[in-house]
Amino acid sequence: MTGAQVGIPLGDAALEAAEAVHRALLDDGSTCATAESLTGGLIGAHLTAVPGSSATYRGGAVTYATDTKASVLGVPQDLLDGHGAVHPDVAAHMARGVRRLVGADYGVAVTGVAGPEPQDGQPVGTVYAAVAGPDSHTRVVRFGFSGERAGIRYDTVEGALGLLRAAVRGEAAGDTRA
């Protein structure tokens, strides 16, 4: 049974990206975990739609509400109070937090504004994706997507999976934060 058969629409491009991530993780002998806000579990859904994903996907946390980013993933409350949830450092803390939470080699996280209204002073389409890996560095990318809410969410899935694949492959992508 596919995700589409149970009412979860999965995007073809995102599924291809998930398959590429799975292959990269297998080749590397690594695992990943997801921390999701605006995507509400779509990254995890795409990763687990790939046959054999249990070898590479450890699990995830959907921390949609701002306070759960602190209580579940360990994002510093003062960071959230000072900048809101849509911030590159929040994404970085989320990625490190989920990696630690489930014992994965890589943690990928997304936080942003899918719309229809701006949030935390950020316009609709602003998304931060981060990957924390075993090298103790966290890569963060800012995306500026346009369009409707659903499209922004799926663009986020594709962008985050691309960032994760690049990190596993050792390719440069985005800021690097210690």
From TrEMBL:
InterPro entries: CinA-like_C, CinA_C. Residues 17-166 form the CinA C-terminal domain. Coiled coil: none annotated. Pfam families: CinA. This is PncC family amidohydrolase. The lineage of its organism: Bacteria, Bacillati, Actinomycetota, Actinomycetes, Streptosporangiales.
